[in-house]
Amino acid sequence: MSEAPVAAADAELDADAVVASGDELQGVPVLTVSDPDAGFFESVGVTWRETPAVVDVVVQVRVRSEGGQWGEWTTLESEGVVQTPGTGGADEEVRAGTAPYWTGPATGVEVIVQGAGGAVPEDVRVTMIDPGTSEADSLPSAAPVSQAGAAVAMPPVVTRAQWGANEAIMNWTPKYASTIKAATVHHTADRNDYAAADVPRILRSIQAYHSVTRGWGDIGYNVIVDKFGRIFEGRYGGLSSTVIGAHALSYNSGTFGVSMLGNYDKVDVPQATVDALSAIIAWKFSLYGVDPSGTTVLNSRPLPTIFAHREVGSTVCPGRYGFARLPAIRASVAGGLGQAAFVRALYQDMMNRGPDDVGLGGWTSSLIAGVDRRVVSRGFSNSSEYRMLSITLAYRQVFDRAPDPSGVATWMSAIAGGAVRIDDLRPALMASAEFYLRGGSSDTAFVDNIYRAALDRGASTWEVGYWADVRRRSGPEAVIRSVWGSVEAAKRRVDQVYQYYLGRTAGPAEQTSWLDVIMGSGDEQLREEVVASWEYFARSGLRFP
User: Fold this and answer.
1) How crowded is residue 396: how many other Cβ atoms within 10 Å of its Cβ?
2) pTM of the full predicted structure?
3) Architecture of domain 2-129
4) What pLDDT shows up at residue 498?
5) Strands (DSSP E) along 261-314, which ranges?
6) Is the confidence at residue 142, as pLDDT, over 50?
């Protein structure tokens, strides 16, 4: 890797310094470099000192082949500004620069640099990189990576060792975020005519430029996907971990930086790339419970959980065609995470049976088309089948028996007409004469039975005495309303919903956070929210792979 100095001059005064591209900005000073005998390299990048006056820098480059022919001029894409590692003091240099550009075998370079605002960029440096050769250039089969906790199978990934990452220039200590909240989609702004055999060398060039020239310590992206649909491990620190990359200024922590190898401001993204990108994001999101159709907050800013680099930086990355693919990527990630598995889980949990073909196909198609999971869940809960099961379950829990036909008909009619909610079934049955008789027609036994049903514990002597007196004075409804509607009972029902639908207990904070919902809107609203959660969706993929 080498750097060439650049001299500043007006285009008119230094016209012979470099052959003009014909696309220079008119009336704007020009920085030029011409080094026809730079030595062998296969990648080039340009950096400059960041100053407030320098805006909209335009960099054009062309290279000389090993045979001595000059190629076409290419405009390089800016990567934005990133603080180089160090103390963070006022005297620490901040540099801006282009993305590294894969030239293929070359021996000479010419560069034109202009600031569209008229200010001349300072301390401009041209970096030429020879990635060398490696045994890894033969690209063996991708190696497996830990999938512990994943709800989605991980696609094959070419590891750092397999593409020949230079660990000698990896000069940073990995840092980790508390979790992963989103994925940032990039393109490398490189050439699109590369061959499959070129990719390991391209990646080593990017690593050298990011690690040494830009001062990022290693390759900035967490993952790179080529046009052939191959996935390559990027930044050191563990692909399944929360290691922080260097790919989106101020938005590196908590994001998974995935870059498409190529320039997708010029051509459409190959479907193989979209599919591979979606597959690796789906796997990563399954580890951390991220909803690909949702939003998150980063730096106090709401963003989609799959967003483009251009949404958080002054760049066109991932190009206009790459950006246009984001809706398809989100849909593909969601599909990859298993819409059908979610429907199967709903049938099992809400209908206590497997799905029929019509139901499975219909609900899955609705989800893929973008229907909210709450709407699908509501379709189940509003069905006669679900209502019948809810009535049967309430009878068994309260009376320890199946409902009689007349009881089913009465409650089905009341629920359908809106006179009674499914939430009201158990408290209503507890207020019946049958429930009182089950306790031996004793007020004290009635109170104890209510406590066991609502709180899963017996009532204390004081509680029995107090509530028995309330029943005698105000009737059973007053006791049921107070005990069943208590915070203690509500927290227990939150935990029951978590146990049943998520397979785990609800933590104290979770129990408290749902109190307003369960005490205000009812148990069914809580169930709907939990079933619509990303955790339930991801768990469905594990249960029904």
Assistant:
1) 12
2) 0.64
3) Sandwich (2.60)
4) 94
5) 295-298, 301-304, 306-308
6) no
Q: Which of 23-27, 179-183, 394-398 has the lowest mean pLDDT?
A: 23-27
Contact 329, 201 (CB under 8 A): no
Report residue 292 CA to chain centroid gap.
Answer: 6
Amino acid at 477: E
According to CATH, the topology of domain 135-337 is Lysozyme-like (3.40.80)
The predicted-structure confidence for 151-172, as pLDDT tens digits, reads as follows 456 788 999 999 999 999 988 8
Rounded to whole angstroms, the Cα distance separating 453 from 398 reads 8
Distance between start and end Cα atoms, the chain? 48
Domain boundaries defined on the chain? 2-129, 135-337, 341-543
> Which residue did the predictor score with more confidence, 457 or 369?
457
Model confidence at 461, pLDDT cuts 50, 70, 90, reads: very high
399, with CB counted inside 10 A (0-12, 13-18, 19+), is middle
Q: Fold identical between 135-337 and 341-543?
A: no
> Who's near 91: CB < 8 A, 6+ residues apart?
none
Q: Which amino acid is at 450?
A: I
Q: DSSP letters of 448-467?
A: HHHHHHHHSSPPPHHHHHHH
The pLDDT value recorded for residue 342 is 92
Give the Cα separation of 260 and 76 in Å (integer).
16
Is the CATH number 1.10.10.60 carried by domain 341-543? Answer: no
d(CA 277, CA 258): 7
> Average pLDDT, whole number, for the chain?
86
CA 282 to chain centroid: 8
> Given this model, what pLDDT does residue 543 score?
86
Q: Phi and psi at residue 228, in whole multiples of 5°?
A: -90, 0
Q: How far apart are CA 179 and CA 298, in angstroms?
A: 12
CB-count exposure of residue 362 (10 Å: 0-12, 13-18, 19+): middle
Three-class secondary structure assignment of 225-264: ECCCCCEEECCCCCCCCCECCCCCCCCCCCEEEEEECCCC
d(CA 384, CA 396): 18
Give the pLDDT score at 8: 32
Sign (positive/negative) of CA torsion 79, 83, 85, 91? positive
Q: Please check the confidence at residue 37 and state whether its pLDDT lies above 50.
A: yes
